[in-house]
Structure prediction request, 386 residues.
Amino acid sequence: MARPFLPFSLPDITAAEADAVTGALRSGWLSTGPRVRRFEVEFATRVGAKHAVAVNSCTAAMHLALEAVGVGPEDEVVVPTMTFAATAEVVRYLGARPVLVDVRAADHAIDPVAAERAVTPRTRAILPVHYGGKPCDLEPILALARTRNLVVIEDAAHAFPARWHHRAIGSIGDITCFSFYATKTITTGEGGMATTERDDWAERMRIMSLHGISKDAWKRYTAEGSWYYEIVAPGFKYNMGDLAAALGLVQLARADEMLARRRRIARAYFDAFHSNDALELLDPGPFDDHAWHLFVVRLRPETLRIDRGRFIEELKTRGIGTSVHFIPLHLHPYYRRTYGYEPGDFPVALDCYQRSISLPIYSKMTDDDVHRVIEAVTDLTRQHRR
Ligand SMILES: Cc1ncc(COP(=O)(O)O)c(C=O)c1O
Prediction:
């Protein structure tokens, strides 16, 4: 009997999340309210940050972060090409230029040497991505930022809860942006968070996340607040609601349990694939510091008679969903047309992209699911060996 299709990703939602959301619904407070505040406080405590500002996506968090630090039309922001659309589009929102740079083959993270070469007098910020949940090499990035007076805004969409040199991601760069999208390591359906130590940046992000209004809605409408508000800038509508935060609070409490499961899956994949010479694995760094949002394998074409596209199709035929992270930004029509990028401009990202497959790795997977993936991948590399 054919086994059911194993999706690439599934959220891990228990009765506790359902109860929390039902509780929020019954409370009568559906938009930004006490649960959002609690989620911010608990998240900030968890990552060791002074401030956490909850918003409705990581994209919103990154946009607010760049706005808060003052990025504007004449500015440049250094962004790795191996990332999702959001990381560079937020730079464009502010009229600034995303300057793409290549990544390291070892872990698909921003190449610090390339980042340094890309800095010009117009550069205001660097936006490194913690690809797949592995903290990128922050030391040279932070050093570059110090010497060239740049702001470091981390795209940590994949990286909760990850650690770097015994510190949680979220307490290191100037502003760190997290995603709670449905497929991420904790989810609020859609959602995000920006963390920072700076009072002024936190205040600016908070104000701009809600129409540039100087008071939060929940303060306005409660006894301690008042009807009066002031618009201090033309802000955005990026606030998180209490339904999402109710879900987020339970997911936050379960984050370690879910990470432990993903870590075990990652370990099983490593054990199964490390000696398979048709595959290359990314350098995980300290295994327990990784958030294990993605598990990427790269095919070695010289050993195989099928290409990456066929490999993905064959896995699908065997009932296994996969994905590819990412189609580098410089290959997309918008970036090619606007900035004249050519595919060969970033050879490492191009090569890694062409050979990469992201395998399922999520806490709802059973041991049997993990086995199926291992068997299918191993069998395909055997069956199609040159
Ligand atoms: C690297 C990266 N950055 C940012 C985002 C955007 O996150 P969100 O959907 O919460 O805006 C994603 C989403 O997939 C991502 O993979």
